[in-house]
Amino acid sequence: MDYFAQQLINGLVLGSIYGLIAIGYTMVYGIVGMINFAHGDIFMIGGFIALITFLILVSFGLTAIPLILLVVLLVSMAITALYGWTVERIAYRPLRHSFRLAPMLSAIGMSFVLTNYSQVAQGARVKPVPPIITGGYTLHEGAEGFVVQLSNVQIIVVITTIVLLALFTWLVSNTRLGRDMRACEQDQTMASLLGVDVDRTISMTFVIGAALAAVAGMMYLLYYGLVDFFMGFVAGIKAFTAAVLGGIGSLPGAMLGGLLIGLIETLWSAYFSVEYKDVAAFSILIVVLIFLPTGLLGRPEVEKV
Amino acid sequence: MSAPPADQTSRAPGAAFILKKALISAFVALVLFSLMIGVRTEAGPQGQLIYWTRFDDLAAMVAAVFVGSILMELLRQWWGPVDTVRVVPASVQSALSLVGRLVAPVLLVFTFLVPVLFYNERYILDLAILVLTYVMLGWGLNVVVGLAGLLDLGYVAFYAVGAYSYALLATNFGLSFWICLPLAGILAALWGVLLGFPVLRLRGDYLAIVTLAFGEIIRLVIINWQSLTGGPNGVTGIPRPTLFGIPLSPADDGLAALLGIEFSPTHRIVFLFYLILALALLTNWVTIRLRRLPIGRAWEALREDEVACRALGINTTTTKLTAFATGAMFGGFAGAFFATRQGFISPESFTFHESALVLAIVVLGGMGSQLGVALAALAMIGGFELFRGLDQYRMLVFGMAMVLLMIWRPRGLIGHRAPTVFLKRSQAISSDLVKEGHG
């Protein structure tokens, strides 16, 4: 039971990170209707920028951990958001009204570019960082000496996720930008006729998605203590799986899907085999889609001829 | 109608506009590259991360973006607006269409002559074999993506199934290549049907992610099922193909000895070249024939409109499954060829990158155009080889080329979807024929 509780905590933390990335996928899909294959790499860039900012701050002699974390978070979000904006501007906007597969291929190309760019710019080796936040709480001590632990990092990851999610839900439901986004999602032509700047709204979607991915990248860095240039691919695929599992285009769905994928992965490695954890996650995706072809919370598409 | 003056000025922006745009680009580049290029991190001797600055590189990059932006804008002005129709004289047009019709036969004849022309150039022969392998994969995937319109991001799975089928059957049971080739195709087709079942109800991007997941599952199982597949170490010692039982070796019963000529390792390369050429042409021939059969027509109808397809009574289940199975079978053939050519296979060769490459070939080739796929494979694989000298920047340049090609030709090099059935001439239909109940 204790073991299970511990795995549950680990799974939820991992799921939060996936969920943050998945939101970026699902938003872009909702508005533009394309799979942004470069999003996983945006997450990786976010991790790198967080790492570099952290190193610089520490070498300047800053010691106040909360201040460092805040600065790292903001810098990473800002620069990664600019990456998201640039990628959209260069690779997707020229293909806005083009045929369906073209932006996807362009996105795959962009993903190669970003992966290789980080490899060339920062080297191929894994970059480890010493644990930045230490300590934690012991929740329960089992009879056989097994301890259920909740580390401070885990608390920070989950709280950051919840806060950002709340902020983001508020943004989509209550602000002008959110209204524009939902309008573009329903009908771009009509939205532009009614005075919504479609190009700007789509750009903002990419910017927000990239900022959330940067947060996920920083959380990943805090939680696992390393970044490398290839981590974007696997995390990206998992997060996209999460978005599809939850029903692509649905924000709560993305978070739910992220948590589910995180839990499946952790529990599968805990009880069955570590090697097959990805196989388990992908298999469950396929099984869910057989029975719910639009994901868990996705709206069924009405076909019109 | 003359254009309003405001339009005139926006069409020919002055130097100030270009400079402003370039400055903005340079500023964006400065922010983007500031940390990623301006600062280099590396694990130090004690395992602790250290960093050093590279402001000269950063300055060079920003300057390059600044100059590049100005050049781009000048180029755009020189080229004029994108959507102007350039009138091509009728004589040039007819000459172009003649050239267009001649490309395929000329290319085919040239391909047949490649081993003769480049007999002593091992590198070119190897490259040609590689290009032909991708031509075959492209033609195979074309059935699924180009004809049936089903987006498949896990095509490499069938390639892997084919390769491992041949490798395992040949090394464990000693079966010959010519027995294993159809078996590999059948097994891959079986997996195609297996993948086809869960995705029958899915459409568009849900389909894409399931096929991607399927490709990853196959790769992960191959990596982890060590007792069968050898895991990450792969399968070694895969037998070379024989000419229907006659080995291409310096032995006494080898082909060279039988023909009474001196043995040369190039014989095998040439044989492999014609083998993959034959396989690729088989793929092409079968696809062209299938397109004229009801099933091929059903694929194309499915691509255009699934709902209309169902309304016309086409069984979408069998249509989709046959598309998957046919595409997978050709992938399996190509995989078996890959295994016998390499003599060694490992999961490294079957990553998502390969799927993306083959898909890029199909899309760049124009989705359904056989000639386009062949040209795209030549361009992509040949181009990728050209970039070999760029070493670590290779994937960077490759990715950029992919993005630029997509922006330049979103519909592919040969971007037309010629319907295979159409009326030879349009007929005027009298109004009494189209009244209610007559249609």
TrEMBL record, chain A:
Residue runs in coiled coils: none
Any Gene Ontology biological process: L-alanine transport
Membrane-spanning segments: 12-35, 42-61, 67-87, 99-118, 153-172, 202-223, 280-298
Subcellular location: Cell membrane
Keyword Cell cycle: no
InterPro entries: ABC_transp_permease (IPR001851), BCAA_transport_permease (IPR052157)
Top-level taxon of origin: Bacteria
GO molecular function, one term: L-valine transmembrane transporter activity
Keyword field: Amino-acid transport, Cell inner membrane, Cell membrane, Membrane, Transmembrane, Transmembrane helix, Transport
Cellular component, GO annotation: plasma membrane
Keyword Transmembrane: yes
Membrane association type: Multi-pass membrane protein
Protein family according to the UniProt entry: Belongs to the binding-protein-dependent transport system permease family. LivHM subfamily.
Protein name: Branched-chain amino acid ABC transporter permease LivH
UniProtKB/TrEMBL annotation, chain B:
TM helices/strands, residue ranges: 15-37, 58-79, 99-120, 127-151, 163-194, 206-225, 269-288, 321-344, 356-381, 393-410
Membrane topology label: Multi-pass membrane protein
InterPro entries linked: ABC_transp_permease (IPR001851), LivHM_N (IPR021807), LivM-like (IPR043428)
Annotated CDD domains: TM_PBP1_LivM_like
Origin superkingdom: Bacteria
Protein encoded by which gene: livM
Keyword Membrane: yes
Keyword list, A-Z: Cell membrane, Membrane, Transmembrane, Transmembrane helix
GO molecular function: branched-chain amino acid transmembrane transporter activity
Classification via PANTHER family: HIGH-AFFINITY BRANCHED-CHAIN AMINO ACID TRANSPORT SYSTEM PERMEASE, HIGH-AFFINITY BRANCHED-CHAIN AMINO ACID TRANSPORT SYSTEM PERMEASE PROTEIN LIVM
The species this protein was found in: Bradyrhizobium australiense
Record's protein name: High-affinity branched-chain amino acid ABC transporter permease LivM
Limits of the High-affinity branched-chain amino acid transport system permease LivHM N-terminal domain: 18-113
One Gene Ontology CC term in the entry: plasma membrane
Subcellular location: Cell membrane
